[in-house]
Every structure is written in C-alpha cells, then in structure tokens.
Amino acid sequence: MKKFLLLAIVAAVVAAASNSLFVVKQTERAVMLQFGEIVNPDIEPGLHFKMPVVNTVRKFDARILTEDSPRQRYLTLEQKALEVDSYAKWRIVDVGQFYVSTRGDIATAGRLLAQRINDGLRDQIGARSLQEVVAGERDQLMLDLTADLNEDTAADIGIEIIDVRVKRIDLPDDVRSSVYDRMITERNREAQELRSRGEELAIGIRADADRQATIFRAEAYRDAEEIRGEGDAMAASIYAEAYQKDPEWFAFTRSINSYRQTFNNKGDVMLLDPDSDYFKYLKDGEIAN
C-alpha cells in the first residue's frame, strides 16, 4: 500500500512538473498568457516555469518567413498597366504586438502584410514610368518599398520586413500588343536616325576623300609636268650641244632617221622632186668633213 501511494505521489509530481515546465527553442519566440492576458510578451529561449491552468504559453516561429503575394495589376506614371508578382521576407520582432495584432495566427499576419505590400507597390509604381519600373529603378523601388513598410509594420503588427522582391512583371494581354507596336515604332525611329546620321557621315567622308584625291592628282600632274619640262629642256640642251659640235653630222643623222621612219612600210608611196633637199644625202652620198 505504501509503495502504491509513493508511486502515485511520484506520478503526480511528474505530471505537475510536465505541466509547469516548458522549453522555448532557439528558432522560436513565445508569450505567456494569464487567463488570456499577456504577462510576459517575449520569453527568451531556454527552460521556463509556468503555473498550470493559470498560465498558457504561445510559441511562434522566429525564423525568416516568406509571404508570396498574389499577382496584382498596377498603373505606372503614364497610366500603363502592369501585372506584378511579388514576395516578401519577414520575421517577428515584437512577439507581444504580433500576438495582439494577429492572435498568433501566421496566416493573418501574411494577409495583413500582403495588403500593405499591395498598397506600397501601387504607390511606388504609380510614381514611376514603365521604363523605370521594368529596368531603370527596379532595385531602388524595392528598397524604397521595404523602408516604407518597416516604418509601420513593427509597431502595428510586430514584424520586420527584411526584403521585398518582384518575381515577374508582365504586360496585360489587352495592352501588350499596343505596347509592343509602340516599342517597335520607337526602335524603327531610332534606327532611322542612326542610318541618317551614318549616311551624313559617309557623305562627308566621301567628299573629303574625293577632295584629297583631286588634290593628289593635281599635285602629281604638276610634278610630272615639271619633270617632263626638265627632261625636255635637258634633251634640247644635249641636242644643241651636239649640233654645235658637228652640224653636218647632226643633219645627216636626222635625215637617216627620217628615211627609216618614212620608208619603214613597203606599201608607202611618196611623190617628191628628186632634186629636193629631202634626198640630199641619198643623192650625193657624201658627208662634208
């Protein structure tokens, strides 16, 4: 009987201890409630004590969580529609406020955060052009949105937004074709401007090349004429010196060359007076000394 009573006492002590002691892991945050009211808004990781029945402990995941927002349509600064698919990384920083705002429901926190992200994206995209949203200021848009969200979420929901990112940006089907046509028109206009600019440069280059070629030909012709003139002058000087040394031999040589050129073709016919000076050296056959 005593053994049975002792076992009953030990069992009661173990049951009381199991209901009174609890562990908060490193990956968890917890609050302690007393009849539904928060008495400890942030319980540190480790082993803790609570009063059975009186105290209740609610534990939450302290790791970084992801909220995947549904695709929404937004208008840019120039009233162009975009469909944006985004997500956010967040974690609990104020456990007490998180419990008060969401009753400890992660799904409720996700819905509240998704609504705020939706409103923030609408404001940020509405203040930028299509080009800025898609490429030019996309990273800055995310940084601004994260900073704006963190101004209120910690105080209102008890969470911190670590990062907000856009997974995909699409044009709605009803405006995609018109946007593509406008982009094609713009690219064709830029291409035409580049072609016109290139043609203008080409005309200038060709004109400069033609001018330089004309100058080169003129200078070459001038140099050739100068060389030719110098050669003619030198030849005339040589002829003059030779003529002065032996005029009769010079006249004979010129006559022989003339005969050779004149009678080179056997079919040539020439009618001349036999007493003509042209046949002087053929007729006399002598050269004066």
Summary of the model, kept short:
This protein has helices at 2-20, 95-102, 106-126, 130-136, 138-156, 173-245, 247-262, 280-284; strands at residues 21-24, 28-34, 37-43, 46-49, 55-61, 65-68, 72-75, 81-92, 159-170. It is of the alpha+beta class. It folds into four domains: 2-61, no CATH class; 65-170, Band 7 domain (Tetrahydropterin Synthase, Chain A), CATH 3.30.479; 190-245; 247-289, no CATH class.
Structural class call reads alpha+beta
Query: What is the CATH class of the largest domain?
Result: Alpha Beta
Task: Give the overall silhouette.
Answer: rod-shaped
Amount of beta strand: 15-25%
Distance between the termini: 179 Å
Helix % is 55-70%
How many strands in all? 9
Question: pLDDT average, as an integer?
Answer: 80
Largest sheet: 4 strands, antiparallel
Describe this structure in words.
Helices cover 58% and strands 21% of the residues. With 289 residues, it is α+β, with helices and mostly antiparallel strands. The longest helix is centred in the C-terminal third of the chain and has 73 residues, at 173-245.
